[in-house]
Write a structure and sequence with these properties.
Length: 920
């Protein structure tokens, strides 16, 4: 870009098109004007993104799916069908497009075609509080199939911490298998052809949620073996360690296949970090996984891994089963397709560290993992489409042509559009246009045409702004160079090169670039890169800054600051109207370490945004530490999404005192319950010594709302998950979990509303909730019948019908009470019983029996010191239960005549409590 206002010349970042003929590179029979490329702006001015694509086997038409945004912040399932030439198929939906609104916000991520050509789309939807698996099925004309689910739509909530489908496969028997995430767990579900859950899968639930203790797991790619075993890939992230690729295989019923890898799991520790984004099964039963890993420069590269059918790394592929390919400065692979000859086609994106614009990137590998040099340039093709483009999906046409799909930003636009490009399978020659700088003018050169074969009588015509400037013949080496000087009177210029063979134009390449381009209509973009950036040379909509504060100093209201992977050791105040977004929350870190003074990590400005970042503030001493501060009315206007916050001074001396707040909302904002300040995030506070330790603190006359957020606060009796301490303060939580080692919540004054929120300890410092709704099946029973335990005997505690029984088998008789587990999952079981020894000291114990056998760790004991002294026995623990398991609370005494009774009561009345909560 050349800035005419200050006469400085900046670097022009060109668009490079590699276009080929005769079954080579971009397919000139496809797309607009023979370019091989199709772009489609679904809704002008807002984003539309393709996440998956499939070729209809019946007619070769292409179906793509993803999302399209609305003008008021909505987001919808969006599916489009194209003819084989790349034109819209107007017989489908509304002139080729189908928009489906599911919940308040939804996104389609995966697509499958049934044997009857009906179309199944999977993704996620959010109803305002919970994100769930979402499926929609369409008839061949694009109308919703009313025989599927409810009016063609099915949603399944697997975890109240959010459930998303990332991939789906339709089995040969037409059962639908979907995989993704449930909270921090890997999740999968299986559906019958009518959309109902297949209860033969997942122990009767129809779905599974696989947890690895203390580890975050996500599934992105899915495949089904011929024996219906399920193979999925994604990443696992133990604690604060960088994410690593993982592959999981399950049996047809959803249980882990213990013959694969280590107990059904392959964890691939590749580089500093890695992720599997998709996978495919080759003809030999091997698992081919693609994704990304960080190289020695901490930049992502293409990653291809091949595992044998047993889960071992295939030593005949690459280096011990692993291949990495650096395409440009930063590259990531998102999808894979296997050709009929076994060659591996991988698509994704490449990003230049000089301008941080993305391009389609495609690599093709031979069956041994080497790059196929008959494809593109040494096995690689990059295609710049508009200002910014990423390929999320790939499929092979029936003639093996390669179709890549994703999104791009068209020239002169600011929003993302559906984008497709179709390629032939090998190259004969390519034409490359580039635009270097020459003094105060722009010199554009066509540096080369590379030939792998002989073309007789070939020439190149070069047109600038549609005017022919020069004609040249190819040299014997297959190269043509033309220096062209362009005036700076116009803001845009078009360079068109036509390759002419025997008098006919067989290839056209066009490069459109901008000179002194205006800022985007909805605010500028400021990029931040800790490695390649410069605060001295950084510019809005141009060269990246090195620090976040450097970028913030140049922002204007409406700007977005994009944070590139790396760690940024700084704290900052976000100005009004500014958005700060990380490219990847696992790789974009903001950290202030070992501070020795009171420190606020981030202060939110009015109408500001903070997304997809990992935040950390640490100290070895006692100071006022605050992670994110919401002053003024920011609890109404500012948002934090998809981020993790950790504040840690747990190594400080135990005798000191400090106030530590993850979130401090101390303003006057009064948002309604639908306005969420923190969403899909985590807040961790680890502290030591005395003082207030709070995950969230409201101490002013404001309201503060969170959703799908985990809060964990440790630091002894002073550590509370959430506290309100102002009479007009109100905290509202949806689909979240709260833990405080001192108390989960504290309501000194004000109000607290907990909807579908788990209190991990179930403890309250003080105060009463306005609402408390547990997220999953919850059973609570309280016994008031007479129960006397004799010496040396064990007795089953008897419960009557007091308490809430939701979805559980329950006996109303006064005989032994047995609870039968209705769903396989992880459960929190808590019990307590009170006893009074009327004849002296005695030991009373209690245990939980699962299917008649004692559960290890479930026993609690207590000793009455003398006659008529009330004591209690209590225990809580987490256990995995299968559907149909029976649960019994059992008590026993080693002395005579011990009665179970409420503590502090003058008369001996039995009292026993049991609660069972399904956590996942």
């Amino acid at each position: 870009m050349i800035n005419l206002n200050n006469k400085k010349i900046a670097i022009i970042y060109c668009l490079i098109f590699l276009i080929c003929i005769k079954n080579k590179c971009l397919d000139t029979s496809y797309g607009t004007n023979g370019t091989g490329i199709v772009t489609f702006d679904i809704n002008a001015g807002v984003d539309s993104v393709i996440n998956d694509t499939v070729i209809q086997p019946s007619d070769g038409k292409t179906i793509v799916t993803g999302y399209s945004a609305g003008t008021n912040g909505q987001q919808f399932f969006c599916t489009v069908r194209y003819n084989t030439t790349g034109t819209l198929d107007t017989s489908f939906g509304n002139n080729g497009t189908v928009i489906t609104n599911i919940g308040q916000v939804s996104e389609a991520t995966a697509i499958g075609i049934q044997a009857d050509n009906k179309i199944v789309i999977g993704g996620w939807s959010n109803d305002g509080s919970i994100t769930s698996f979402a499926l929609a099925r369409y008839n061949t004309d694009g109308s919703l199939d009313t025989n599927f689910g409810t009016n063609g739509i099915v949603t399944t909530t697997i975890s109240t911490n959010g459930s998303t489908i990332n991939s789906l496969v339709i089995r040969s028997d037409q059962l639908i298998v979907a995989a993704g995430t449930a909270g921090i767990n890997y999740a999968a579900a299986r559906y019958n052809t009518d959309g109902s859950l297949d209860t033969s899968f997942g122990g009767g639930l129809g779905y599974i949620s696989v947890a690895i203790p203390n580890v975050q797991v996500a599934a992105y790619g899915l495949a089904i073996q011929p024996d219906n075993k399920i193979v999925a890939t994604g990443f696992y992230k133990p604690g604060n360690v960088e994410a690593q690729m993982v592959v999981v295989r399950g049996n047809a019923n959803g249980a882990l296949d213990l013959t694969f890898g280590t107990n059904g799991v392959v964890k691939a520790n590749i580089g500093n970090k890695s992720v599997g984004n998709f996978l495919a099964l080759d003809a030999g039963g091997n698992v081919v996984v693609v994704g990304s890993t960080a190289n020695v420069n901490a930049n992502n590269t293409f990653l291809v891994v091949r595992l044998t059918s047993s889960g071992a790394f295939d030593s005949t592929f690459g280096t011990n089963g692993i291949v990495t390919t650096a395409i440009g400065d930063i590259s990531q692979a998102y999808d894979v397709a296997l050709q009929a000859d076994g060659k591996i086609v991988v698509v994704g994106s490449t990003t230049s560290s000089s301008n941080f614009l993305n391009q389609f990137a495609i690599a093709r590998y031979n069956t041994d993992g080497s790059l196929d040099n008959t494809f593109g340039t040494n096995g690689i093709i990059t295609t710049a489409i508009g200002n910014n483009s990423i390929a999320n999906a790939v499929d092979l046409q029936t003639n093996q042509k390669i179709l890549a799909a994703g999104f791009g930003i068209a020239n002169g636009e600011t929003n993302l559009s559906f984008t497709l490009a179709q390629y032939n399978t090998s190259n004969e020659f390519s034409l490359d246009i580039s635009t270097p700088i020459n003094s105060s003018t722009i010199t554009t050169k066509i540096p080369s045409i590379f030939l792998t074969g002989s073309i007789t009588g070939a020439e190149v015509d070069v047109l600038v702004d549609r005017t022919l400037l020069t004609t040249g013949l190819l040299s014997s080496t297959g190269a043509f160079n033309a220096g062209i000087t362009l005036p700076l009177t116009n803001t845009t210029h078009t360079i068109l090169a036509n390759l002419i063979v025997t008098g006919s134009t067989v290839l056209s390449v066009e490069n459109v670039f901008t000179v002194d381009a205006p800022d985007p209509e909805f605010g500028g973009v400021l990029r931040v890169d800790s490695i390649f950036g410069s605060d001295t040379n950084g510019q809005r909509n141009n060269f990246p800054f090195k620090t976040i504060n450097g970028a913030l100093s140049q922002t204007q209201s409406g700007d977005t600051v994009w944070i590139y992977p790396g760690t940024y050791y700084e704290n900052f105040i976000i100005p009004t109207g500014i958005s700060i977004k990380g490219l990847n929350s696992n790789a974009c870190n903001i950290s202030k370490q070992n501070v020795n003074t009171g420190t606020d990590l981030i202060t939110m400005g009015e109408n500001s945004r903070l997304e997809d970042l990992s935040l950390k503030l640490t100290s070895t001493g006692h100071y006022l530490l605050r992670g994110i501060v919401f002053p003024g009315t920011t609890s109404y206007t500012a948002k934090v999404k998809n981020s993790s916050l950790t504040i840690d001074n747990s190594t400080a001396w135990t005798t000191g005192s400090s106030n530590i707040y993850g979130i401090h909302s101390n303003g006057t904002g009064q948002p309604d319950s639908s306005n969420i300040a923190i969403n899909n995030s985590s807040i961790v506070v680890k502290s030591n010594g005395t003082g207030a330790k709070r995950g969230v603190l409201l101490d002013a006359a404001n309201k503060f709302n969170i959703s799908n957020t985990q809060i964990l606060v440790t630091g002894g009796n002073f550590a509370f998950g959430v506290e309100t301490s102002n009479g007009n303060a109100q905290f509202t939580s949806y689909a979240s979990s709260i833990f405080g080692s001192g108390a989960d919540v504290s309501i000194l004054t004000g109000n607290m509303i907990l909807n579908s929120t788990i209190l991990e300890n179930g403890t309250v410092n003080t105060g009463v909730f306005l609402t408390k709704v547990y997220p999953l099946n919850y059973i609570y029973a309280y016994d008031t019948t007479s129960q006397t335990l004799n010496s040396g005997t064990l007795g089953n505690i008897t419960f009557n019908t007091n308490g809430a029984i939701n979805g559980w088998q329950h006996s109303t008789t006064s005989s032994t009470q047995t609870f039968t587990c209705p769903q396989t999952g992880t459960y929190l079981i808590s019990y307590d019983l009170f006893f009074i020894r009327t004849g002296g000291a005695a030991l009373v114990s209690a245990v939980i029996l699962q299917n008649g056998a004692q559960i290890a760790g479930s026993q609690a004991n207590n000793q009455s010191s003398a006659a008529n002294i009330a004591c209690n026995v209590a225990k809580d623990f987490i256990v995995s239960l299968n559907k149909g398991d029976t649960i019994v609370l059992q008590a026993g005494s080693n002395n005579t005549t011990t009665s179970i009774a409420p503590a502090g009561q003058g008369t001996i009345r039995p009292s026993a409590n049991l609660s069972i909560v399904r956590l996942s």
